[in-house]
Amino acid sequence: MKVKQELLKLLSPQTSSDEDRLKIANNDPLAPPLEPADALTALFVLGYDKVASVAEAAKKSIEAYPAHSVIEALNKRLDPLVIKKAVTLHRDNEAVLIMAALNPGADDDTLRVIAETGPEELLEMFIEEKEMLRKKPFLAGAVKKNPLAGDALKKRVDSAVSSPEAEAPAGEEVKKDEPALTSPGAHRDEQNIYKLVQSLSMAQKVKYALCGNKSARELLIKDRNKMVAYAVLKNPGITDDEVLRVVMTKGTPDDVLRHIARNKEWIKSYNIRLGVVTNPKTPLTISIKMLDFLYEKDLAKLAKSKNVPSVLASSARKKIESKAKK
Questions:
Q1: What is d(CA 25, CA 272) in angstroms, rounded to the nearest whole number?
Q2: N or C terminus: fewer CB in 10 A for the chain?
Q3: Would you say 220 and 209 are in contact if contact means Cβ atoms under 8 Å apart?
Q4: HSE-up of residue 117 (Cα within 13 Å, Cβ side)
Q5: If you ran DSSP here, which 8-state letter would residue 164 be given?
């Protein structure tokens, strides 16, 4: 595998001591500071170190390496073997799988595994990325093998592959440079972020939704494509306050509200729970079920509200009457 020269000096027995490599393998605070991409690569390489104590420490550290740092690492081009290791260790983390699939260093074998076993949201992304399907013809078959791929989705795969948009003139290939939305300049100028986002493909939007800063998240959560909005909700940096703003916004799509309602950690917040219930776009099956977890004063407001479906208001009244009888 390829390792950049500066990092190799820290990892090679010829240029570093066993003690120094052990510090890196243990994520020791005294070890040289490394960005997530370099740190993940270092742990992978040291997992094969000839010194048993170094190799063992590195293997334990890479297994314990936090998912949010893996996502940040995958925002940079990584060696195919490192990406494959990340997928193996975090196969149940949708955000990691999406970032791995979008990493330019991912090899065909890793992409095939992700397409055949990944979540439905990832399958949607592959379908949207016609250029990717054109460059990697095997992906269409891999997506169709996925147990989550229903007949309708399989038809969409066939349609995407046969679409004229998926074909490019021979010898021509357009490469887009992906702007760094997390750069300090982009953070200071939200208008620049807006302009940049308009030029991104769906896959690029998903990528930045997963690892972008607050300004990027606030813009991308409003994207028409639900895949992008879902990705924002998986961003490790998203806060409860941001989620609360989403549920309090009347224009938030029902799919996004349903997604938030399924998150046990967010629903622990009473304000978020109340926001989900009172949003008129929330599916009734979800909002009615959550009435059991609201304070009586809020049930009373819902019972009189004209801004929620009549069925929900009626259910709130029945809850109040039932409590009164008890």
A1: 40
A2: C
A3: yes
A4: 13
A5: G
Within-domain flag for 125? no
- Nearest of 296, 267, 325, 246 to residue 287 by alpha carbon: 267
- Give the model confidence (pLDDT) of 200-216 as tens digits: 888 888 988 998 889 88
Tell me what the mean pLDDT of segment 120-143 comes to.
88
Q: How many folded domains does the chain comprise?
A: 2
Is the model more confident about 165 or about 244?
244
Residue 222: which of 259, 200, 195, 249 has the closest Cα? 249
183 occurs within a structural domain: no
Q: What are phi and psi of 70, to 5 degrees?
A: -65, -40
Tell me what percent of the residues of the chain surpass a pLDDT of 70. 91
Mean pLDDT of the chain: 88
Rounded to whole angstroms, how far apart are CA atoms 150 and 60? 39
Residue 63: domain span: 1-106
* Amino acid, single-letter form, for residue 312: L
* Letter string b/e over residues 107-126, b meaning 16 or more CB atoms within 10 A of that residue's CB: eeebbbbbbbbbbebbbbbb
The answer to the question of residue 168 being in a domain is no
Per-residue pLDDT at 180 exceeds 70 = no
* Last residue of one domain, picked from the residues 62, 87, 106: 106
One-letter amino acid of 181: L
